[in-house]
Design goal:
The chain is an all-alpha fold and 60 residues long. Helices cover 80% and strands 0% of the residues. It is built from two helices and no strands. The longest helix is centred in the last third of the chain and has 32 residues, at 25-56. It is rod-shaped. It starts with a helix and ends with a helix.
Length: 60
């Protein structure tokens, strides 16, 4: 679930950064923060899922 929220935040931030019209500097800065925050949230979520999957695996 957190991964999806992170992806949505990153997509919204990317849309603000790539807008074809001129936006105020505050909106562009917000887009940058959303992109970074969403990317970090997605990566942390993925690392947690991958580590949990490795712990559940039995070797041998």
């Amino acid at each position: 679930m957190l991964r999806n929220v992170g992806l949505a935040l990153a997509a919204a931030g990317g849309a603000l950064l790539a807008a074809p019209i001129s936006l105020p500097a505050g909106i562009v800065a917000l887009g940058g923060y959303l992109t970074v925050g969403g990317t970090v949230l997605t990566e942390v979520s993925q690392v947690t899922v991958e580590d949990g999957a490795k712990a559940d695996r039995k070797d041998g």
